[in-house]
Write a structure and sequence with these properties.
The protein has one domain: Immunoglobulin-like, CATH 2.60.40. It is built from one helix and ten strands. By secondary structure, it is mainly β. The protein starts with a helix and ends with a strand.
Length: about 120
Amino acid sequence: MIPSYMLSHIYVKGSLKNTEGGFEFTLKNTVDSGTIIGIGPLTVDDEGCPPEALSITTRQGQKRGDEISGRAPVYLPYGTEAHITVAGKALTPGEHRVVLAVLTSEAGRLQIEFRDAIS
């Protein structure tokens, strides 16, 4: 089990921003090397986003959230950044609470939670 305070440091502060097709943010693996075998759900201010709306981009390339599985994992070495893109509507200006569930083969289900603002 990884303590929630350690998981809260995975989010790269200030990386939450709107894009043309939705929004994005960056995570940096500051815990230990791991293998993501599932991603989602993701909620923003308690509103859910489906896994197919998520994309994760690492040095290995890009995968949609619904493509990630035990047969098609995403390996995230220690110190590596992952950019999460969410297709759909942009976020309104102000602070938002984001909660992302990630399933890893090493530590099981993890919940990454952070607050940041869009200006």
